[in-house]
Amino acid sequence: MGPRGTDARHVMYSTNTNTGALFNMVFTLARPYPQGYNAQQIGSPPVYEVNRTEEFDAWLAQLADLRARAKILVRIRRAERGHFGDVKLLEDGVAEMRIDCGPGYRVYFAREGRMVYLLLCGGTKSTQPADIKHAKAMWAAIRKELS
Questions:
Q1: N or C terminus of the chain: which is more exposed, having fewer CB within 10 Å?
Q2: Res. 63: pLDDT tops 60
């Protein structure tokens, strides 16, 4: 047993320097990752259901910056697996997912129930106040329709 009752694992690392000397180092990993930790990252089934409004899809489709569009899609895929990243909670149940790319893209979303997220709309840092107001209005209308 390793420190604090954990399973200690030893990792051997060998390196060859320019002088030809071989160095061997042993590292002790006192706290290995929990079983299944890495499997959750890639290739795992989604944890959350993420739905999109038609308005969000239209906004994403019209983005000329393909790199930004790809980054946004990657963030959505990560959010499905529970990794939301840089998110700011706003008022009235709306949150803002901040994408650090280009002019500062934002994706506005809300949660319905424990497992379902709805992407409402998107925008940039320059249109942020109007986008937040619009996202709140969309979410209020959707909640009213659901009840």
A1: C
A2: yes
Domain 49-146: CATH class, spelled out: alpha beta
Lowest mean pLDDT among 34-38, 91-95, 135-139: 34-38
Positions of E strands within 30-131 = 49-52, 87-89, 94-99, 105-112, 116-124
- For 16-55, letters b (16+ CB in 10 Å) and e give eeeeeeeeeeeeeeeeeeeeeeeeeeeeeeeeeebebbee
In the chain, what is the greatest distance between 2 CA atoms, to the nearest angstrom?
A: 74
Q: Is a pLDDT exceeding 50 seen at residue 2?
A: no
